[in-house]
Design brief:
This protein is mainly α. The chain has one domain (about 1-290). It contains 9 helices and no strands.
Length: about 300
C-alpha cells in the first residue's frame, strides 16, 4: 500500500504542477481585475512549448543541464513531501533538512542556468534572487529549527501518524506556528520578481516551468502538512481516508495559490533587497525560535 500511495502521490504532484501554476496566474489576474484565464491554459501552453522545434546550442548546454538538475531536485522533494497521506514508501527518508535542501536546489539551479546564459537582464534578475536567498537564509534556518522543535524531530511524516485527526503536536505551541506562517508570508512578500526564462529550446523551457511550479507546490504541501495537518491520512487509513486527504489537500492548495497571488506585490521592488518585509520575516523567525524553546504557548 505504501508503494501505491507513493506512486499516486508523485503522479498527483507532477500532474497538478501546471494546474497550480495556472491557478496562481488566475488568482493574480483576478486580483488585478483582468479576465480570468482558463484552468487548462497552462497545460495547453506547456504542451505547445514541448512540441516546438528543438534547437540545441553548445552555448546553452550548461544552462540546460542546470535546469534538468533543478527539475530532478523538485521531483525528489515532491516524492518526500506528503500530500494526502503520510503512509509513503519514502517516509523514512523524508527529513526536514533534506527536503528543504532539495527545494532550495530546485530554485537555485535554474537561476544558475540564467547566469550561464550570457543575457544581462537574466543575469541581473537571477543575481538579485540569489542575493535575496542569502539574506533570507537566517529566517529559513530558524523556520526549520522551530518546526523540528514543535514536531518532535526532523522527520516530515512522523508528526502526522495520528491520521485524519489533528496529530499530537498540532494543538500546542500555536504562537510559534503563527509566527512561522508570518515569516513565510513576509518572505513571499519580500521576494524579488521572477527572472525571465532563458532563451533555449521549448522542452527545456517546459522543464524550467515545471521545476518552478513543482517546487512551489511541494513547498506549499510541506507547509500544509506541518502547520495544517488536519485531514492528512496516515497509516491504517484506506481509500476513504485517502479520498478525504485528497480533498483536504486540494482545498489547502487552492487557498495557498490565492494567498501566493495576494501576497506578491503588484510591482515588486526593482533595486532594494533589504525591505521591511524581509526585516519582519527575520524578527518573526527569531521570536518563533525563542518561543519554541520555551515550550507550548
Amino acid at each position: 500500500m505504501r508503494l501505491i500511495a507513493s506512486l499516486l502521490h508523485l503522479a498527483l504532484l507532477l500532474g497538478a504542477a501546471p494546474g497550480f501554476s495556472g491557478l496562481v496566474a488566475a488568482a493574480a489576474a483576478w486580483r488585478a481585475g483582468l479576465p480570468l484565464p482558463s484552468p487548462l491554459s497552462a497545460y495547453r501552453a506547456w504542451r505547445a512549448l514541448w512540441r516546438q522545434e528543438q534547437v540545441f546550442l553548445d552555448a546553452t548546454a550548461h544552462a540546460d543541464a542546470a535546469i534538468a538538475c533543478g527539475l530532478a531536485a523538485a521531483v525528489l522533494a515532491a516524492a518526500l513531501t506528503p500530500s494526502f497521506t503520510t503512509a509513503l514508501a519514502t517516509q523514512s527518508f523524508a527529513l526536514l533538512p533534506l527536503v528543504a535542501g532539495l527545494l532550495v536546489m530546485a530554485e537555485l539551479m535554474p537561476l544558475l542556468a540564467r547566469l550561464a546564459s550570457g543575457d544581462m537582464a537574466q543575469g541581473i534578475a537571477a543575481g538579485r534572487i540569489i542575493g535575496f536567498f542569502c539574506l533570507a537564509s537566517p529566517a529559513l534556518f530558524l523556520i526549520l529549527w522551530v518546526l523540528a522543535q514543535l514536531d518532535g524531530g526532523m522527520a516530515v511524516g512522523g508528526m502526522a501518524l495520528g491520521g485524519i485527526a489533528v496529530p499530537h503536536g498540532a494543538g500546542g505551541a500555536r504562537v510559534p506556528r503563527l509566527l512561522v506562517l508570518l515569516t513565510l508570508a513576509a518572505l513571499v512578500r519580500a521576494a524579488p520578481a521572477a527572472a525571465p526564462l532563458p532563451e533555449t529550446s521549448g522542452r527545456v523551457r517546459v522543464m524550467a516551468l515545471w521545476a518552478a511550479a513543482l517546487g512551489r507546490l511541494a513547498a506549499l504541501s510541506l507547509i500544509a502538512a506541518l502547520c495544517f495537518p488536519l485531514g492528512l491520512a496516515g497509516m491504517g487509513h484506506g481509500l476513504a481516508g485517502w479520498g478525504l486527504g485528497l480533498f483536504a489537500w486540494a482545498v489547502k492548495m487552492l487557498i495557498g495559490a490565492v494567498l501566493l497571488a495576494a501576497l506578491r506585490p503588484a510591482r515588486p521592488p526593482a533595486s532594494r533587497l533589504i525591505t521591511p518585509a524581509l526585516l519582519i520575516a527575520t524578527l518573526a523567525a527569531m521570536f518563533a525560535a525563542l518561543l519554541a524553546g520555551m515550550g507550548p504557548i
